[in-house]
C-alpha cells in the first residue's frame, strides 16, 4: 500500500476513533452520574429484581398510594387553610351560618368547601384517603401477621409498619381536629378528659398542650405543624425505609412448586411490575376521587363551630379511634378520692389499655421468636391454617376490636336499631371478655379441621362426585389423586417439636437449676406448637401405602 493511501486510512481511523470518544450529551450526563452515584450497578441489581404475583401483596400498595394521595391533597389544602383560633363573624357563601361567631380555622374550612374551586372535592378525597390509608395498613399488617411474614429477617420492617399504623392514627386525630367544628371539638374534649385522668401530671399536661384552660387558644396552631410537617415527615421516612428493606430482603411468597427459601418465582420489577404498579396507582387515585365526588364525609357545615358548652348528637370519631372510645364508654365510671385528689380509673385504665393493646401487636414477632428459638431466615409464608394458635390470636384481637367499636358507637347503634343503650353497654362489657376467647377457640378448631381436610386430600385425593359400585356390591366415591404440585403445597410446611426444658435431674442425680423464663417459654411453646395445635402431616410411607394400588 502506498504512503498516501496509508495516511488517508489512518486519518479515517483517527476520525472514527475521535467520534467514538465523543459520546452524546445524554450519555455524558449518565456517565457523570454513574461515576459519582453508582447508578448503573444499582439499577442493574434492582430493576430486574423478581417480585411474586399475588393479590394480597397489593394491600401494601394501596397503603402507599393512599399516602401519596394524602400528601398531594394535603399540600393543596394547606394553601387555603388558616390554623388560627382568632374569632371572626362569618359572612360567606353558606348562608345558614352567616352572622355566627367562629374561629378563623373553621371559617377557612367553610371557604375551602364552598368558595375554593375544587376545594370540597379535595377535602373529601383527603379524608377518604386517610380512612383508606389506615384501613389498608391494618389489613396489610393482618396479612403479614396471619402468614408469618414478620419472621426473621423482617422484624425491623414489622416495627416500621407498626409505627406507621400508630403514627397514622395520631395524624388522623390531629387532622380530624383542625377544622374546629362541633364534631372535632368534641373529640378534642374527649382527648383532654383522657389526659386529665393521668395522676399527678395530667393537669400540667393539659395546660401545656392547650396553652391554658381548655379549649385555650393555641391548640389549632400547635396541631397544624404536627399534622402537616412533623408526623408526615416521620412517616415519609419510615415509608422509604420500609421500601428499602422490602428491596433488600427477598420478597416473601406463598408455598408452591419451585418456591423455596433461596429462590423467588414472579415477574421482574422492570418493566412488568412497574407497569402494573403505575396502573394500580391511578386506579386507587381514581377510586378515591370517585368516593370524594359522590360520598359526603365530614360535612363540617352541618355541625357548626365548636362551643365548649355544646356536644353534637352522635359524635363519633373516625373508625380507627372507635375502639379507644369504646374502652372508655363501657368502663364503669369509677372515681377514687385520696387526700383531696380525685383519681379517675374509669378513664385512666381504658386510656392506658389503648397503647398497651397496640404495643402487644408491635412486640409479637419478638415474643414468637423467643418461644420458638428459631434463628433461621423465612421467605416462604405460612398458610394461616398451619399456625392455628397464631391465627386464633389474630382473630381474637380483631373480635375485641369489633366489640369495642360497637361500644364506641353505642348511642348510634341504639338509635338506629331501636335498642336500649344500657343493654348495648352491658353486652359490650361482657363481650370484651367472652368474644376474644370464643373467637380464639372457634378459629383454632376451624384451622385444625382444615388441616385434617388437607391430610385427607393428600392421602385419598380429591373428591370427584363419581360413585362406583364394586364387584361385591359396595358403593364408593372415586377420588382423583392430587398432582405433585398440589401435594407439595399441602405438605411443605414444617412441624418442628416445641421447645422443652428437658430432664430436671441429670445422669448424676443432680437437680438442674431452671429459670422461670425457661418454664414460661416451655409452656407457651407447648400451647402454640404442641400436639394439640396441629394435625400430623402424612408421611411418605402412608402416602405410598394408600396410593400403591392396594384396596380402593
From TrEMBL:
Transmembrane domains' residue ranges: 57-81, 127-146, 158-178, 190-211, 223-248, 269-295, 347-367, 387-407, 419-443
Pfam families (alphabetical): Cytochrom_B_N_2
Keywords in alphabetical order: Membrane, Transmembrane, Transmembrane helix
Cytochrome b/b6 N-terminal region profile domain location: 29-255
EC number(s) reported in the record: 7.1.1.8
Start-end of Basic and acidic residues biased regions: 18-27, 540-552
Needed co-factor(s): heme
Region described as Disordered: spans on this chain: 1-27, 530-552
Keyword Transmembrane: yes
The UniProt record lists the keyword Ubl conjugation: no
Protein name: Cytochrome bc1 complex cytochrome b subunit
Originating species: Streptomyces asoensis
Lineage: Bacteria, Bacillati, Actinomycetota, Actinomycetes, Kitasatosporales
Gene from which the chain derives: qcrB_1
Amino acid at each position: 500500500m502506498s504512503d498516501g493511501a496509508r495516511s488517508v486510512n489512518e486519518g479515517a481511523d483517527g476520525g472514527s476513533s475521535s467520534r467514538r470518544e465523543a459520546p452524546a450529551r445524554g450519555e455524558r450526563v449518565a456517565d457523570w452520574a454513574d461515576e459519582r452515584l453508582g447508578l448503573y450497578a444499582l439499577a442493574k441489581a434492582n430493576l430486574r429484581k423478581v417480585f411474586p404475583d399475588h393479590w394480597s401483596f397489593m394491600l401494601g400498595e394501596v397503603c402507599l398510594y393512599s399516602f401519596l394521595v394524602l400528601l398531594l391533597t394535603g399540600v393543596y389544602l394547606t394553601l387555603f387553610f388558616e390554623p388560627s383560633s382568632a374569632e371572626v363573624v362569618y359572612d360567606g357563601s353558606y348562608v345558614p351560618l352567616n352572622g355566627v361567631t367562629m374561629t378563623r380555622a373553621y371559617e377557612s374550612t367553610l371557604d375551602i368547601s364552598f368558595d375554593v374551586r375544587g376545594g370540597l372535592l379535595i377535602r373529601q378525597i383527603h379524608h377518604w384517603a386517610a380512612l383508606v390509608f389506615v384501613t389498608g395498613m391494618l389489613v396489610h399488617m393482618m396479612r403479614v401477621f396471619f402468614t408469618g411474614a414478620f419472621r426473621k429477617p423482617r422484624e425491623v420492617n414489622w416495627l416500621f409498619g407498626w409505627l406507621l399504623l400508630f403514627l397514622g392514627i395520631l395524624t388522623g386525630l390531629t387532622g380530624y381536629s383542625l377544622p374546629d367544628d362541633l364534631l372535632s371539638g368534641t373529640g378534642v374534649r374527649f382527648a383532654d378528659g383522657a389526659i386529665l385522668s393521668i395522676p399527678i401530671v395530667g393537669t400540667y399536661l393539659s395546660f401545656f398542650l392547650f396553652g391554658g384552660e381548655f379549649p385555650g387558644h393555641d391548640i389549632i396552631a400547635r396541631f397544624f405543624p404536627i399534622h402537616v410537617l412533623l408526623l408526615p415527615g416521620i412517616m415519609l421516612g419510615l415509608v422509604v425505609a420500609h421500601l428499602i428493606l422490602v428491596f433488600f430482603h427477598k420478597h416473601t411468597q406463598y408455598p408452591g412448586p419451585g418456591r423455596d427459601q433461596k429462590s423467588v418465582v414472579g415477574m421482574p420489577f422492570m418493566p412488568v411490575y412497574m407497569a402494573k404498579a403505575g396502573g394500580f396507582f391511578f386506579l386507587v387515585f381514581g377510586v378515591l376521587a370517585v368516593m370524594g365526588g359522590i360520598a359526603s364525609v365530614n360535612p363540617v357545615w352541618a355541625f357548626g363551630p365548636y362551643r365548649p358548652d355544646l356536644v353534637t348528637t352522635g359524635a363519633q370519631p373516625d373508625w380507627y379511634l372507635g375502639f379507644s372510645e369504646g374502652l372508655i364508654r363501657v368502663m364503669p365510671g369509677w372515681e377514687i378520692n385520696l387526700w383531696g385528689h380525685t383519681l379517675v380509673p374509669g378513664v385512666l385504665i381504658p386510656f392506658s389499655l389503648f397503647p398497651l393493646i397496640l404495643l402487644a401487636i408491635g412486640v409479637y414477632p419478638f415474643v414468637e421468636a423467643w418461644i420458638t428459638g428459631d434463628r433461621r431466615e423465612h421467605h416462604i409464608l405460612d398458610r394461616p391454617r398451619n399456625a392455628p394458635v397464631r391465627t386464633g390470636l389474630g382473630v381474637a384481637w380483631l373480635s375485641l376490636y369489633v366489640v369495642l367499636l360497637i361500644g364506641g358507637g353505642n348511642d348510634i347503634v341504639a338509635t338506629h336499631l331501636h335498642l336500649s343503650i344500657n343493654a348495648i353497654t352491658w353486652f359490650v362489657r361482657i363481650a370484651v371478655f367472652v368474644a376474644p376467647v370464643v373467637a380464639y377457640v372457634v378459629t383454632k378448631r376451624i384451622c385444625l379441621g382444615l388441616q385434617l381436610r388437607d391430610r385427607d386430600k393428600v392421602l385419598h385425593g380429591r373428591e370427584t362426585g363419581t360413585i362406583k359400585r364394586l364387584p361385591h356390591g359396595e358403593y364408593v366415591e372415586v377420588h382423583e389423586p392430587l398432582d405433585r404440585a398440589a401435594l407439595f403445597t399441602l405438605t411443605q410446611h414444617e412441624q418442628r417439636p416445641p421447645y422443652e426444658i428437658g430432664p430436671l435431674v441429670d445422669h448424676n442425680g443432680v437437680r438442674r437449676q431452671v429459670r422461670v423464663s425457661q418454664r414460661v417459654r416451655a409452656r407457651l411453646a407447648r400451647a402454640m406448637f404442641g400436639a394439640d395445635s396441629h394435625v400430623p402431616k402424612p408421611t411418605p410411607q402412608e402416602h405410598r401405602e394408600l396410593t400403591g394400588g392396594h384396596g380402593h
